[in-house]
Amino acid sequence: MTQVTKMWPLLTGSYSYDKSISTFNLGRGQRIDAPILAYLIETRNGRILYDVGCDHGKISDPVASAHFYKPEVFEYGAPVMEESQRLPKHLARLGLTPKDVDIIFLGHLHFDHAGGLKELRRCGCGAEIHVQQEELEVAKSGADGAVFADDLLDDAGSPLQFKLQKGEYSLLPGVHAIASPGHTVAHMSMLIELPKGQPVLLAGDAADLQENLDHEIAPGTLWQGREQEAISSIRKLKTLAKKTGAQIWPNHDMAFYRSLPVFPEAYQ
Q1: Does CATH number 3.60.15.10 belong to domain 4-258?
Q2: Burial of 29 by CB count in 10 Å (0-12 exposed, 13-18 middle, 19+ buried)?
Q3: Domain residue spans in the chain?
Q4: Could you tell me what percent of the chain has a pLDDT over 70?
Q5: Which of 205, 226, 213 minimizes the C-alpha distance to 35?
Q6: Whose CB has fewer CB within 10 Å in the chain, the N or C terminal residue?
């Protein structure tokens, strides 16, 4: 029986960019607005955060923003992240603090998914940080330009401690880590069994848009060009959804996000 009681999608920022970043070799020249999401999952045995958004400091400080979001690398500049979209602010609206988070699960280590780690630690969050071992190895190698090495350090410059994982596993009854590589070397999605209604399958960046799922289009950013691996992961998620009755949630689809309950209303 699932231990999940409810969950919340958390809008931690937004990004405007060329659609081809989300749909491989398609949509070039079309600008889209994409939500940057994290998900808070409440269970009878603690709270889990799937992803943590961007580092607010790298966006709000002009010097830091110019350094990290160099125009020659980030053609569209830095994402937009309002003060109210910082994770501690979301948690406060639920009567919680970062200390109330027990597990942080990172689907991958790109800046818009792992950047919030430093602020959560600064606010007293002592949660275990789960990440795939291969993801961390690639991140440390510098081979993936969408990873900011600074996001993996605390304020003192010491490496954050991760609970390294290999492959699929259950975090607890009703919360399952699902391998969906292609966007990154060891990208992970998450299947969540809710107490009422159909399960939710968080695609993460295995599927930015509903279009990725409907037409089996790889995301536009791929690890070493592994398009077929990314498409295989989309098909795997669709097969799992059919088997479990789950609804797949694309990760950067603004129209889909706007169809969800408005925070702080919970999804159950």
Answers
A1: yes
A2: exposed
A3: 4-258
A4: 100
A5: 205
A6: N
